[in-house]
UniProtKB/TrEMBL annotation:
Identification of the protein by name: Ketol-acid reductoisomerase type 1
Residue ranges of every copy of the KARI C-terminal knotted domain listed in the record: 179-326
SUPFAM superfamilies: 6-phosphogluconate dehydrogenase C-terminal domain-like, NAD(P)-binding Rossmann-fold domains
The species this protein was found in: Streptomyces glebosus
Record GO biological process: isoleucine biosynthetic process; L-valine biosynthetic process
Signal peptide: none
Metal-binding keyword on record: yes
One Pfam family linked to the record: KARI_C
Chain positions recorded as Mg(2+) 2 binding sites: 187
Amino acid sequence: MYYEKDASLHDIDGEVVAVIGYGIQGKAFAANLRDSGIPVIVGNRADAYREAALRDGFETQSIIDAVKGASIVILLIPDEAHPDVYDAQIRPHLDEGDLFVVAHGFSLRFERIVLPANVDVALLAPKMFGKPIRQRYLEGSGVLAFIDVIQDASSRALRRTLGVSQAMGFTRYGVLPVSHATETELDLFQEQFLTPLLLDTFRIAFEVLVEAGYDPIPSLLDMHASGEMAEMMAEAASSGLYEVIEQQGSPTCRFGVQRYLGKLIGEEVKGKGKDILQDIRSGGFVEALSKEAEAGYPSLSEYQALYQASDVTKTHDRYRDILGSR
């Protein structure tokens, strides 16, 4: 693990950073770098995000001009846009010795972009979304990040990427070496297995209670909307999944947990997890994603309509209306 003592802003002295994309991650990256004294150019197409960057006081240019004006380029646009934007607006304008950084290894793991041999290439993947990246930086702390030097043309790729990590506040928490392939596969597995499993678990718990005659709003609150479970999971990130129950749960809670732990989800679910992981590693997911993107993401519209019509969403809307009427 790399910490503050292992990094130095001096390793990126005199360099200009182009932050490509001013969305969820780009806004936080640009702000933290600027506050650390690093010259920043925001590269973005002419849209609402570019207008936001201008309002926030950043030098804002087209993607091509931002790449031309920088020696470190950080790509923070959605994965599906990488090939077209990279091929047309980034790769032709990378100079020898530039450092090209990705915050997610997807396009490299699945060979969707081709890297020039004369530039440094690295993964710097914060394990948190933009808002806490910015908030914790301002509080004097940071978030965990993964790092991987993929190509070291200058023999300084690690030092430079750690310099960026320090400017972002990541080395305040810790930066862990993890290959870009592993980072990609872990991230996709979380999105395709753990996240839907959690959502379905909350939905099933809510439906069991409502079908048994309990009022939907207190049922929703006790299952997740009060935020208690989220606080427990946040605490578990440092204490441990099992330890947080021991530390924060009453004897009644601990007895209830141990009574059914390991009995609700069995080998069938574990087998589905293995199938999903194999689909990710084999490229099956990428193939399905490409077809979905070419068709304009029709399944996402269907999913949105489905969850908006669900009793969970309707109950949450009612609860928000109650809060708004205070």
